[in-house]
Amino acid sequence: MSKAWRAAVTWVAAAAAVAAGAGAAHGAQAGADAGFSFTVEEYAAVPFGTDRATVWQTVVGAAQSPPPGSASGWCQNYTSTIQCFTASGDYVPYGNFNFNSAGILVSKQNEFLYKPAAPSMTLAKYNKVQLGMTEAQFRAIVPSASCVVDEEAYPNWPATTGHKVGYKCDASTGLFPPVAYFDLTDGKVTYKYQRALT
């Protein structure tokens, strides 16, 4: 995956998220739930290859460490996933940290943590993207400002083979805008799906 294009997507998404208040510091966001303090910065800061205990301490803290399967206010510690929410309620931003059988972080997913800077995805652009296209071909069609990274995975960690990056590319603003999803695995398009694009 091109560092320049991924950096552009990450930068515009992070800027938009901060502007929208999704990444406010612990409890500082206006109207934030006092018991929920997970932030977009914490999500981004946890590197792949981190052990489960360290991830938990990073996003929750040593003082909030119930056994696996217990609730801890803003995070849930499931069998193979730590799931953290930024607030209570429906359709709130959250992040998933997924672990392999050795308890090592190999996948991260998020919903609503990032917002595209300038959503402009269209059906015509979507239709131009074909499975098997290289990253460069994909980047030439899909505007980075329309997209955010909603998933990244290293299923064969510590090897980088099979590296997957998932993009969510919106057509407009709003809670559920027309959208396209793309997966790039080892630098090639391996999955595409769209809903309601025109």
Task: Write up this protein.
The chain is α+β, with helices and mostly antiparallel strands and 198 residues long. It folds into two domains: 3-15 and 114-195, BLIP domain (Nuclear Transport Factor 2, Chain: A, Roll), CATH 3.10.450; 23-106, BLIP domain (Nuclear Transport Factor 2, Chain: A). The chain contains five helices and nine strands. The chain has helices at residues 3-20, 40-45, 52-59, 123-128, 135-141; strands at residues 71-72, 75-77, 81-85, 94-99, 105-111, 147-153, 164-170, 179-185, 188-195. A nine-stranded antiparallel β-sheet has the order 1-2-3-4-5-6-7-8-9, with helices on one face. A hairpin with a 5-residue loop joins β4 and β5. The longest helix is centred in the first third of the chain and has 18 residues, at 3-20. The two termini are 27 Å apart.
